[in-house]
Design a protein that fits this description.
373 residues; alpha/beta; Rossmann fold; 2 domains; seven-stranded parallel β-sheet; six-stranded parallel β-sheet; 15 helices; 13 strands; elongated
């Protein structure tokens, strides 16, 4: 009886949301039933971590959309590995993956949509509609993403399956020693409130709204901010911090691997996104018993329940963000209540074990039970 051979294909393997979903699934899948490989169009820091975990990783090194030689390399790899199912993530990987899978004779194809895309990308939905017959199911990371994608493609509901993103709640439980260490390092006093932002520095994440709120809060009580992440708006964040000087309320950490320590040090998470899928950063903060201040947008509002696990505000509204932060800063009982409820919600509804089990079930349904060689 041989294992089912799966290859996950993604654009790159940096430590961001969709990439970490690929990483966790590859590491946690039942290796007695499945042989998992990972391929990426470009590299990233997660490549070495996957290889250290015993996962075969192919980095194609694609330099541009006309790099057809890399498509041939992908097709060759899929054929030689005798892949039963190619599971693509994100648009460009799906574009390359479908062509390579056809050339390699891969019998089954699956695609995951990770975000309710807020930018103008009509060609992506036209492509998904045109190629729907080649893909056996479209997995969406939240109900909101499914509804959004279906409304743009016009595809029937039975083409979709929702598998919520999941996190390991135990891995993000608050570490009191780390809290003390980091708050001391950052000169955060016992009565100060520390607001964390963890994520890609991108227009999608509303980083400009966060900085506008921080500017409004400067000098209005002991509220400080710590920003962890990297991306195209890094220069904007660094310039803001430089303008503040040494007395500013915002500290920028750059890209950070140890997210748990930052969440342990913080008193709340701010997530002023303009659009989302089902953000891992918010789920991780909830697992760390932090209340969330988030925007009422697709995906986020499916994870964060207003008044129960956090406070929801309109997007692009720095004033509402300030008011929500100040409300939480002034009410310790509310912070504790929302944080405790958030952790329980993650444990019950957004577990990484549930996520992996759902993928395993889907793979078996598509490819079939164990077969004889």
């Amino acid at each position: 009886m041989r294992r089912i051979r799966i290859c996950q294909l993604i654009t790159e393997l940096r430590p961001a949301g969709a990439e970490r979903c690929v990483y966790e699934l590859a590491r946690r899948i039942d290796r007695e039933r499945f042989e998992m490989r990972v391929a990426c169009l470009r590299g990233g820091s997660l490549v070495d971590s996957l290889r250290e975990a015993g996962i075969a990783v192919t980095v194609l090194g694609v330099r541009g959309k006309w790099d057809v030689l890399k498509l041939a390399r992908l097709s060759t790899m899929l054929a030689r590995a005798k892949i039963d199912l190619l599971h693509t993530h994100l648009f460009h990987a799906d574009l390359a993956g479908r062509a390579a899978a056809s050339l390699a004779g891969v019998p089954h194809l699956l695609h995951t949509v990770h975000v309710a895309e807020g930018r103008f990308r009509p060609w992506q939905f036209a492509y998904a509609r045109a190629m729907a017959g080649c893909c056996e199911r479209i997995v969406c990371v939240s109900n909101a993403v499914r509804d959004f994608h279906a409304s743009r493609t016009g595809l029937p509901a039975d083409r979709y399956l929702v598998i919520h993103n999941g996190v390991d709640a135990a891995a993000y439980a608050r570490d009191d020693a780390e809290r003390t260490r980091l708050r001391d390092r950052w000169a955060v006093r016992s009565g100060d409130m520390l607001v964390a932002f963890v994520g890609r520095l991108d227009q999608q994440k509303g980083v400009d709204t966060l900085l506008a709120a921080a500017e409004k809060l400067t000098g209005r009580g002991a509220i400080k901010f710590v920003i962890a992440g990297d991306g195209p708006q890094r220069e904007m964040v660094e310039s803001f911090v430089d303008r503040q000087g040494g007395s500013g309320c915002v500290r920028y950490l750059g890209r950070v691997d140890e997210v748990r320590a930052i969440l342990s040090a913080a008193d709340m998470l701010a997530m002023p996104s303009r659009w989302e899928g089902l953000p891992l950063a918010a789920a991780e903060a909830m697992a760390a018993s932090l209340p969330i201040v988030a925007t009422r947008v697709a995906g986020l509002s499916e994870l964060v329940v207003d008044g129960e696990t956090g406070l929801l505000i309109p997007p692009d509204d720095a004033t509402s963000l300030v008011e929500a932060i100040e409300r939480l800063a002034g009410d310790a009982a509310l912070r504790e209540k929302l944080g405790a409820a958030g952790r329980q919600r993650v444990i019950k509804k957004f577990s990484i074990d549930t996520n992996v089990a759902a993928h395993e079930k889907l793979y078996l349904q598509i490819v079939g039970r164990r077969r004889q060689d």
